[in-house]
Design brief:
By secondary structure, the chain is α+β, with helices and mostly antiparallel strands. It has 2 domains: 71-237, Aminotransferase class 4, branched-chain amino acid transferase, N-terminal domain (D-amino Acid Aminotransferase, Chain A, domain 1); 249-431, D-amino Acid Aminotransferase, subunit A, domain 2 (D-amino Acid Aminotransferase, Chain A, domain 2), CATH 3.20.10.10. Helix content is 27%, strand content 25%. It contains 11 helices and 19 strands. Strands 1, 2, 3, 4, 5, 6, 7, 8, 9 and 19 form a 10-stranded mixed beta sheet that branches. It is globular. It binds 2-OXO-4-methylpentanoic acid. 2-OXO-4-methylpentanoic acid binds next to loops. Keywords: Amino-acid biosynthesis, Aminotransferase, Branched-chain amino acid biosynthesis, Pyridoxal phosphate, Transferase. The modification N6-(pyridoxal phosphate)lysine is found at residue 269. InterPro entries: Aminotrans_IV, Aminotrans_IV_CS, Aminotransferase-like, B_amino_transII, BCAT-like_C, BCAT-like_N, BCAT_family.
Length: 433
């Protein structure tokens, strides 16, 4: 074949390889190798101009710590057939137990000019220096978003721009390098396209995307790391929490523990907000509750529940059905699901929507007056989880969430899932393939 035509063919294969998962899996090792060699040959024939001029260890003048990595620089190395994992059955998925065949990695080295070229590689363990700041001072952050396989077989992401924004806020707080969220979305899209057969063919499962940014500089100073690594891994998941047989959870409110405090990082998705919740959550489990209701301050204000935002539905002073959640006062994660719920329900005429301080006394009073109708938690992992009981100071507060004929939580959940799985077209859902 003339060299030009073969170059065009190889380029087409390279750009469309994500559509050929089945073909790739079925193809012989020989055929696979040929493809790889062709791609390498193509790269050799036409190296990117900036790279050609620079030895690899030299700083790249076009990339500074303030300027992002670029999707256009993305390099893809596909897993060989023998590296492809067996896909688990949907019933076995659980949450975050299985991982796909590829991952995204983007290194940052200040002395090399900042962000390096993004790479998609076969899924592999990381090698990390034992003194890396991420391991000692939790100089790290993570995100959680999902790819949904719609009824039309198209794959959608849900408001990924909001996750990117939140990542950059958390990066800033921990001295980690910031980046252009649109570029990361493009890299993640490519990763999901490559591993698209891992997006479950089911409306009760999804592909959870976990972008993570860690400080890798191996020194003990508590200062902004000179080196960092952003990676994204993918995990096919089903339900996050185990619920009671009615689908609801019981939560435990202990006023003596807090998840976050004013001026802290309760509003940032950093690992240090989650690890220290384990002891209390285990204690709650021993008492028969699935999650912890996080209170704050002398008035015992509700902040979050488990790793979710908290919502109440009650009959307000005007006799209206009111959906309420605490305001973003620095203690609360600005959840993507939280924001979507507020925006969607604001368009409904039969529900009043408010962000307001909610104290335990208020919950108890509303419940005593028979005005508390529902409570639920909301987050990317769970979507929406109804709450039917609060364990509080040796007593149980029964919340009648599961006794409602047309509960608000179910209507919201149905609306979100309809958008996410493509039953309705909506600007929140971005089709990626
Ligand atoms: C989410 O629902 O968005 C979460 O982050 C949950 C995760 C910490 C397991």
């Amino acid at each position: 074949m003339p060299i030009r035509r073969s170059k065009i063919l190889v380029k087409w294969i390279y750009e469309n390889q994500h559509k050929m998962q089945t073909l790739r899996r079925c193809s012989s090792t020989l055929r696979y190798k040929e493809l790889e060699e062709n791609v390498q040959a193509l790269e050799h024939l036409a190296p990117p101009a900036t790279e050609a001029a620079l030895p690899t260890h030299q700083p790249r003048p076009d990339i500074t710590p303030d300027v992002s990595f670029k999707y256009d620089d993305l390099k893809v190395a596909l897993a060989a057939p023998y590296q492809l994992q067996r896909k688990p059955e949907a019933v076995d998925l659980g949450f975050g137990k299985y991982f796909t065949d590829h991952m995204l990695k983007i290194h940052y080295h200040r002395e090399l000019g900042g962000w390096q070229k993004p790479e998609i590689t076969p899924f592999e363990n990381l090698t990390i220096h034992p003194a890396a700041k991420a391991l000692h001072y939790a100089v790290q952050l993570f995100e959680g978003l999902k790819a949904y396989r719609g009824v039309d077989d198209k794959i959608r992401l849900f408001r990924p721009d909001l996750n990117m924004h939140r990542m950059n806020l958390a990066a800033k707080r921990s001295g980690l390098p910031m980046f252009d969220g649109d570029e990361l979305i493009k890299c993640i899209k490519r990763l999901v396209q490559i591993d698209q057969e891992w997006v479950p063919h089911s409306e009760t499962s999804t592909l959870y995307i976990r972008p993570t940014l860690i400080g890798t500089e191996p020194t003990f100073g508590i200062v902004a790391p000179e080196s960092a690594m952003l990676f994204a891994i993918l995990s096919p998941v089903s339900a996050y929490y185990k619920t009671n047989s009615d689908g609801a959870v019981s939560i435990y409110a202990d006023p003596s523990v807090v998840r976050a405090f004013p001026g802290g990082v309760g509003n940032r998705k950093v690992g240090s907000n989650y690890g220290p919740t384990i002891e209390v959550t285990s204690h709650a489990a021993k008492l028969g509750h699935q999650q912890v209701l996080w209170l704050f301050g002398p008035n015992q204000e509700l902040t979050e529940v488990g790793a979710m935002n908290i919502f109440l539905v009650y009959i307000n002073e005007n006799g209206e059905k009111q959906l309420s959640t605490p305001p973003l006062n620095g203690l609360i994660l600005p959840g993507v699901t939280r924001r979507s719920i507020l925006e969607l329900a604001s368009q409904w005429e039969d529900v009043t929507v408010r962000e307001e301080v909610i104290t335990m006394d208020r919950v108890i009073q509303l419940n005593k007056q028979g005005r508390l109708v529902e409570m639920f938690g909301a987050g990317t992992a769970v979507v929406i989880t109804p709450i039917s009981n609060i364990g509080y100071k040796e007593t149980n507060i029964n919340v009648p969430t599961m006794e409602q004929e047309h509960p608000v939580y179910q209507r919201l959940k149905d609306t979100l899932l309809a958008i996410q799985y493509g039953h309705i077209e909506h600007p929140y859902a971005k089709i990626i393939t």
